Amino acid sequence: MLLVATALAFAYTEQLKLTPSPILGTQVTKVFSPVCECDTDAAVIAFRLRESDRLDVEIIDKGGAIVRHLIERLVYRRGPVELVWNGRDDANAVVAEGSYRPRVRLVRQRRTIVLPNRIRVDTTPPRVRLLDIAPRVFSPDGDRRADRVVVRYRVDEPAQVSLYVNGRQRVRKRGQKLGGTIEWYGQVEGTPLPRGVYRFSVGAVDVAGNPALRRPGRDIVIRSVALGRDRVETRPGARFAVFVSSDAATVEWKLGARTGTARPGTLRLRAPLQPGRFTLTVTAAGQSARAAVIVRRPAP
Q1: Would you state the pLDDT for residue 249?
Q2: Residue 107 and residue 17 share a domain
Q3: Are strands 251-255 and 258-262 parallel, antiparallel or unpaired?
Q4: Last residue of a domain, one of 88, 104, 121
Q5: How many domains does the chain have?
Q6: Pair (115, 149) in one structural domain
Q7: Residue 206: is it exposed, middle or buried by C-beta count within 10 angstroms (0-12/13-18/19+)?
Q8: First CA to last CA distance, the chain
C-alpha cells in the first residue's frame, strides 16, 4: 500500500508539472515602508488568473506563518487580480522588518501557490551626513566667478539625496549612491536669490520611501559685493579707505556726484569738499552695498 500511495503521489506531482500554472503575469512590489506616509506605503500584488476561481490570499513570513489574510473565499473571474497590502497584520499592527511572500489558495482547483516574489518591509529611515560645503560665501551672478556652491554628503544606505535651502528643497540628486556631491547655483527659476545668510541642509529618502531626519545645517552667505564697514567719518577733502569684498573682476562706485571703477580690495577715495552726509554705493553684478560717509568740519 505504501508503494502504491508513493506512486500515486509521484504521478500527481508530475501531472502538476505538466499542467499550466493557474497564475501568470505576477507583479509584486519589492520593497515598501508602511510608516512613510508616502506613495510607497503599501505593496501591490497583481497577477492574472487562467480560470475563474474562489481565492484565499495570505501574506506569510519566512517560516510560513500567516501574518495577514488579505481575502478569503472571494470569487474572481478569469483575468487580472490586484490586491494591496498595507504592511499590517490581522491585528492591524505594523509587521516587523523583513521579507514576506503572498500565498494564493485556489479553492476550486485545490491548489496552493506561494508566489516567488518576495516583499521586503523596511521601516528604518536612512541617515545622511553633510560632510562639507564650499565656498561658504558665493555670488550667483552669472560671471563664472564663485557662482556655485558644492555640497558633499554621505548616506548609510542607497537613497535619493536632496539639498534644502532655508527648509525648502532646491536640488534633488539623481541616483541613489552612498556618497557624492550636489552643486547649486543659487538661483530659483532662473533668478538669483538676494544676498543674505541661508541655512543649507541635506535630506534623503530610501528605496522604501522612508525619509531621513534632517540634521541642523550650515550657514552660507550669498553676496556679490560687501563693504568692510557701513559708516565712515572724515573731514572735507580728506582721503579715506573702505575694504570691498567681491569676486567680480571690477566694481563700480559712486560717492556724491563722482563715480568710478576699481578692483575689489581696498578702495581709496577722497571725501567731498562740503560737510554733510553722503552715501558710498559700490556695485558688482547688479548688486550693491552701501556705506554712510559723514563729512564734518574740523573743530576750531
Answers
A1: 82
A2: yes
A3: antiparallel
A4: 121
A5: 3
A6: no
A7: buried
A8: 132
Mean pLDDT of the region 73-86: 95
Q: How does the average pLDDT of the chain come out, rounded?
A: 89
Of the ranges 35-44, 148-157, 183-192, 193-202, which one carries the lowest mean pLDDT score? 183-192
Residue 171 belongs to domain with CATH number: 2.60.40.10
Q: Which domain holds residue 175?
A: 128-222
Q: How many residues does the chain have?
A: 300
Mean local confidence (pLDDT), 78-103: 97
What's the pLDDT tens digit per position in 163-172?
999 999 999 9
Query: Of 81, 106, 121, which residue constitutes the final position of a domain?
Result: 121
pLDDT at 143: 65
Asked whether residue 300 is assigned to any structural domain, the reply reads: no
User: Are both 242 and 205 inside the same structural domain?
Assistant: no
Residue 45 lies in a domain: yes
What are the grid coordinates assigned to 155, written together?
548616506
8 sits in which H/E element: helix 2-18
Whole-angstrom distance, CA of residue 113 vs CA of residue 103: 6
According to DSSP, residue 15 is labeled: H
Do 169 and 184 belong together in one domain? yes
CA distances from 115 to 20, 118, 145 (A): 15, 8, 58
Q: Region 185-194: what's the mean pLDDT?
A: 83
Q: How far is the C-alpha of 258 from the C-alpha of 267, rounded, in Å? A: 14
The SS3 call for residue 227 is: strand
| Nearest alpha-carbon partner for 292 in 240, 225, 222, 237 | 240
d(CA 100, CA 44): 13
3-state DSSP helix/strand/coil % of the chain, to nearest 5: 5, 55, 40
Q: For residue 218, tell me if it sits in a domain.
A: yes
Pair (15, 94) in one structural domain: yes
